[in-house]
Amino acid sequence: MADSRKTAIVTGGSRGIGREVALRLASLDYDIAIVYVGDPNEAAETVSECTKKGVRAIAYVCNVASFEETKETVNAITKDFGGDSIEVLVNNAGITRDGLIAMMSEENWDSVISVNLKGAFNMIRHTSRLFIRNKCGRIVNISSVSGLMGNAGQINYSASKAGIVGLTKSTARELASKGVTCNAVAPGFIRTDMTKNITEENSELLKTIPLGRMGEVSDVAAAVVFLLTSPYITGEVLRVDGGIAM
């Protein structure tokens, strides 16, 4: 490698929380590997914003629900940035397919579990060997307060995010002796495309938030960076929810 910067992999990194996390880490002098599906223009914009901070950034199209695609993508990132440099993994990729359990299709159940939960497993599975070899690694998984307290109409999403908590704690126990930490952040209602239909004026849901407002992507990114830079915290689930799940 031409420099000694460390590399951070951010899934779902082309927009929203993922983009903000990528930009924060770029500001901390991490090279950035953005894993995404969707709009290539958004990914290109995020790459551009990262490189303006003086780091390398590359976007990789990858369906995280695919074991083989994630394996190939991690191999490509390793080739591009160098395996010794890969230090951070942020599993942020996620989707929603809301519906009541009595009417939820098998397809909507499977797709959410596959992206949100299996996707995080896939990425940890394929990067863990690098972390173990390097005797250092920082993993942060994006869960949700829906996974801690449940949410009617989000059976699939809540189950996937509850699964993230178990995945996080088990990974933390398995990899602790290898110098690897694994934590989770559980956001509440955050202003993103996923919550664009919720407004502070008309949503009864927002009345349940003690701080009385929605969070910003910057609030979540700050929590992610805190956990990534805290070497003596592992297996933790940090809520960023305005107090909704306390």
Helix content range: 40-55%
The number of domains: 1
Q: Which structural class is indicated by helix and strand composition?
A: alpha/beta
Number of helices: 7
Q: What is the CATH level 1 assignment?
A: Alpha Beta
Radius of gyration: 17 Å
Which descriptor suits the 3D outline? globular
Total beta strand runs = 7
Portion of residues in beta strands equals 15-25%
CATH superfamily: NAD(P)-binding Rossmann-like Domain
Q: H/E order of the elements?
A: EHEHEHEHEHHEHE
Within the largest sheet, what's the order of strands?
Answer: 3-2-1-4-5-6-7
Reported by name, the CATH topology is Rossmann fold
The description of the largest β-sheet is: 7 strands, parallel
CATH architecture: 3-Layer(aba) Sandwich
Stretches where pLDDT is under 50 for at least 5 consecutive residues are none
Mean pLDDT: 94
Please give the alpha-carbon distance between the first and last residues: 45 Å
Present the secondary structure layout.
Elements: E1 7-11, H1 16-27, E2 31-36, H2 40-51, E3 57-61, H3 67-81, E4 86-91, H4 106-134, E5 137-142, H5 146-149, H6 155-175, E6 180-187, H7 217-228, E7 237-240
Parallel strand pairs: 1-2, 1-4, 2-3, 4-5, 5-6, 6-7
Helix pairs in contact: 1-2, 1-7, 3-4, 4-6
What would your notes on this structure say?
- This protein has one domain: Rossmann fold.
- The chain is globular and about 50 Å long.
- Helix 1 links the parallel strand 1 and strand 2.
- Strands 3-2-1-4-5-6-7 form a 7-stranded parallel sheet, sandwiched between helices.
- The mean pLDDT is 94.
- Helix 1 packs across helix 7 and helix 4 packs parallel to helix 6.
- With 246 residues, the chain is an alpha/beta fold.
- It is built from 7 helices and 7 strands, in the order βαβαβαβαβααβαβ.
